[in-house]
Amino acid sequence: MGRWFSQEGHVVKLDQILPAHIGFGSAPLGNMFRSVPEEEASATVDAAWEQGTRYFDTAPFYGSGLAEIRLGNALSGRPRDEYVLSTKVGRVILDEEEDPAARDLGEKGNLFAHGRPNKMVHVWTADATKRSIEDSLKRLQTDRLDIVWVHDIAQDFHGDLWLEKFEEARTGAFRVLTALRDQGVIKAWGLGVNRTEPIEITLALDEPQPDGFLLAGRYSLLDHAHALQRLLPMAEEQGVGMVVGGPYSSGILAGGTHFEYVAAPPAIVAKVARLKELTDSHGVSIKAAALHFSLAHPVAEAVIPGATRPAHTIEDHAAFNEKVPAGFWADLRDSGLVSPLAPLPDGA
After folding, report:
1. How many CB atoms are closer than 10 A to CB 181?
2. What is the CA radius of gyration of the chain?
3. Span 177-203, average pLDDT
4. Measuring CA to CA, which residue among 28, 33, 59, 36 is closest to residue 113?
5. Residues taking part in catalysis
6. Residue 137 in contact with residue 76, Cβ under 8 Å?
7. Do the Cβ atoms of 186 and 177 come closer than 8 Å?
8. Quick check: 31 and 114 in contact, CB under 8 A?
9. Would the pLDDT of 24 be above 90?
10. What is the DSSP letter of 78?
């Protein structure tokens, strides 16, 4: 990796890097939940590009490198200076093979049971971080990354051992990524997690300082109260931006049946039904409500819904551009379906 962007040692803001408020989350391209045909994966990325998407997020974890490979193939003919690319560190992909369906993914079950069989090693040391980045560059067919997220150092994957993993990342990945940013090799780094606590701890450290974070599933219409208690006030005070992952809560807010990567429980299904009644009464799509809600917080800089069908990413952009009337937000507030602390569009 060559020196190509000078930060002069300063933390940057995500809004200086991200080209728009909507991007593309590539986790589904790693055969999340199902085996996705190659042509379908390629067509989905092409559709996202044609809709104007210029920020793409991926990770080695998604199908043991499959999402990176597919994204790299789809973007290989695009001018590199025209899009922003982020990936993650924390898993090194080996040539050795294993049964994808037999992996221990903590609370995520067999999320990528249809992914590549290449064995994944969960490690956040300095050497592993450097290797992970070099391997990602090859899979993505690019010479540089814009943002690197430290992936999944949280309770959902590691249970009571998560603080040990965090410390490994603090003394390994955090320092490597800080040096790469200060040298101008990457533009920014942060944490990409499904829990708030690792980010809270990181923001409380004297060093190193992240430039932002990717929070998946914790700032959606269905799950946001906890993030509003401590994390988001800390981030706002420090001027640290957030990329919102999982705005559809694993699909349940986009017509699917999954919540938190498993079958949605009855209470969630009932809440979604109430939300759907409200959106229908105002002639609003539930996707639009989900995206606009997630972006309404001052810390939110972008939202990255994922898709594996071209029609879905077209729907995402239509929802992003949809005008949601102020009356909907007022009724949403009055319904009690959202936290009273949650900022809403139009000041509702």
Report:
1. 25
2. 19
3. 96
4. 33
5. 57, 62, 88
6. no
7. yes
8. yes
9. yes
10. S
Average pLDDT, integer, range 259-284: 93
What the block records as the tokens of 243 is: 């990329």
- The answer for residues whose C-beta is within 8 angstroms of residue 255's C-beta and 6 or more apart is none
Entry pTM: 0.94
Tokens of 348: 């509702």
What tokens were used for 292?
């606009």
Q: Under DSSP, is residue 36 helix (H, G, I), strand (E, B) or coil?
A: coil
Using alpha carbons only, give the angle 64, 149, 245 rounded to the nearest 5 degrees.
Answer: 85
Nearest to 151 by CA among 117, 102, 198, 219: 198
Q: Which token pair is 123?
A: 């490690």
How do residues 68-82 score in pLDDT, each as one tens digit?
999 999 999 999 999
CA angle (179, 181, 184) in 5-degree steps: 110
Q: Check whether 179 has a pLDDT greater than 70.
A: yes
- Is the bond preceding residue 208 a cis peptide, omega within 30 degrees? yes
Q: Identify residue 120 by its one-letter amino acid code.
A: M
**How large is the average pLDDT for residues 332-338?**
96
Is residue 185 classed as helix, strand or coil in its secondary structure?
coil
- Cα→Cα distances 200→77, 213, 283, 284, Å: 39, 11, 38, 34
**CA–CA separation, 21 and 200 (whole Å):** 23
Q: What is the pLDDT of residue 191?
A: 98
Helices (runs of H) and strands (runs of E) counted in the chain: 13, 12
End-to-end CA gap in the chain: 47
Q: Count Cβ atoms below 10 Å from residue 255 Cβ, excluding itself.
A: 13
Please give the structure tokens belonging to residue 345. 């569009």
Residue 5 pLDDT? 34
Query: Could you tell me the CA-to-CA distances from 24 to 121, 267, 316 in Å, in that order?
Result: 26, 29, 10
